[in-house]
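User:
I study polymers; will you set down one protein's sequence and backbone structure tokens?

Assistant:
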Amino acid sequence: MYPTDVKYTKDHEWVRVEGETARVGITDYAQKQLGDVVYLELPDVGRTFNHGDVFGTIESVKAVSELYAPVSGDVVEVNTALSQRPEAVNTDAPNTWMVVIKIANPADLDALLDAAAYTELTK
């Protein structure tokens, strides 16, 4: 079962809503599909994304995948430690955040999945 205090995208990002912001990472399912993460390309603070836009890439020993913005808004924080230690995603994907986005359109949250729906998606 996936943590119930976060929401999920069909693209396997998790989203922890914290007031007017959304903290974003990839799910444990995504990490297991990718294998060992070796590189992350994340946006700069201040970048603006629309819901569904590519906000970065994640590279593993198996593949390079795109990361998608779960909500529209401005990036207000980036986990810069991941540029030096991208392998942190391998050991604790559910708690390793990548970016924080100030939510521009709260209605975007309605498209996210709860833990039960995400569990069904990943069966």
